[in-house]
Design a protein that fits this description.
Helices cover about 40% and strands about 20% of the residues. It is of the alpha+beta class. Bound molecules: 3,4-dihydroxyphenylalanine.
């Protein structure tokens, strides 16, 4: 290797060792700077005889170009490396899963209430709402359950201020007071029609809501839900109750072969009265009778308290437990789970 080739090699090696642009500039100065080795060689040309000058000059020039090319390559390589390092540092891993926002959802009992409202709505029932703090009159007396009636003892509840000493206000023990409240409003709205002897539009309503009793175990909660139903007109019979309720249960549980049983019972506000049991033909509960509602033909005294003539108006009522329906629908065996507010439980119904 001649001296110039060795020089170029040495420049390449030094440039390669430069780890930063500043190092590289220092290395460049060693060869191309004012006192650099190439520059010195150029200067030495002047001392040569004319006939050698030309060939020597061309050789040095070639070496100079080779050093400059090596410098340019190394500059580019350092710039590339810096860019790569910067890209790496700023890299976003788009494959990481995002932070999720919690999803809200309706409570399972609310889902049931919506379902009940939509099914009865499709059968022409209105949806009514009423107070949870109720008077003794609407909760008991107007429903043919006078003060000393033994049926009251099954409805132990929470008494609150208001009302009279003898008949304080209370947290309603059932949604049945809505029968009276709604019917009275309905009758008031249609009073002139009724007085003129015209046919009053039928009362067809459901009233879902919260109810309260002093009761607490796996199937009873001090606060629970009920949904009242009432259909009163001039020609409404038990047959209609059976039809409507059977249709409702089959739709609610999406089971066409579900069977209903009307078991004779007693409620002060209906006569005759029946408890409604359902039986699934398939699934884990197949064959068992499960009570889902109380029902009956509205008692004449109750019809009277609605402001209607029991000789002319007749109908049926029912009261069911949406909590119970929710347990059956989802296979939940402890009612208290619905009201503990544990998100791990509730999130399953979203
Ligand atoms: N209110 C009754 C209860 O809570 C249930 C009930 C029975 C409602 C018969 C009715 C009915 O409307 O006709 O036990």
């Amino acid at each position: 290797m001649n001296e110039l080739d060795a020089l170029v090699e040495s420049a390449r090696a030094q440039f390669a060792q430069a780890a930063t642009p500043a190092d590289l500039e220092n290395a460049k100065a060693l060869f191309l700077g004012k006192a650099g080795r190439i520059t010195e060689l150029m200067k030495s040309l002047g001392a040569l005889p004319v006939d050698e000058k030309k060939a020597r000059g061309a050789a040095i020039n070639q070496a100079k170009q080779a050093v400059e090319a090596a410098l340019t390559d190394r500059r580019q390589a350092l710039a590339d490396a810096e860019l790569q390092a910067q890209l790496r540092a700023e890299a976003l891993d788009v494959t990481l899963s995002g932070r999720q926002r919690g999803h809200g959802g309706l409570h399972p009992v609310s889902l049931t209430l919506e379902r009940i409202e939509s099914i009865f709505g499709s059968m022409g029932f209105e949806v009514a709402d009423g107070p949870e703090i109720e008077s003794d009159w609407f909760n008991f007396t107007a429903l043919n359950t006078p003060e000393d009636h033994p049926a009251r003892s099954m409805h132990d509840t929470f008494y609150v201020e208001g009302g009279s000493d003898k008949a304080p206000n209370l947290l309603r023990t059932h949604t049945s007071p809505m029968q009276i409240r709604h019917a009275v409003q309905h009758v008031k709205r249609h009073r002139s029609m009724i007085d003129a002897g015209l046919q009053m539009p039928e009362i067809r309503v459901i009233a879902p809501g919260r109810t309260y009793r002093v009761d607490s175990d796996a199937t009873h909660s001090p606060m629970f839900h009920q949904c009242e139903g009432l259909w009163v007109g001039e020609n409404v019979s038990f047959k209609d109750l059976k039809y409507v309720f059977t249709d409702f249960c089959r739709t609610f549980f999406e089971s066409d072969d579900l069977v209903l049983r009307f078991r004779p019972s007693f409620f002060p506000f209906t006569e005759p009265s029946a408890e409604i049991d359902i039986q699934f033909q398939q699934g884990p509960l197949a064959g068992r009778w499960l009570e889902v509602a109380g029902s009956g033909q509205v008692h004449p005294n109750v019809v009277r308290n609605m402001g209607l003539d029991p000789e002319r108006y007749i109908g049926f009522a029912f009261g069911m437990g949406p909590d119970r329906l929710t347990m059956l629908r989802y296979g939940v065996n402890d009612l208290r789970l619905f009201f503990d507010g544990d998100v791990r439980f509730l999130a399953q119904f979203r």
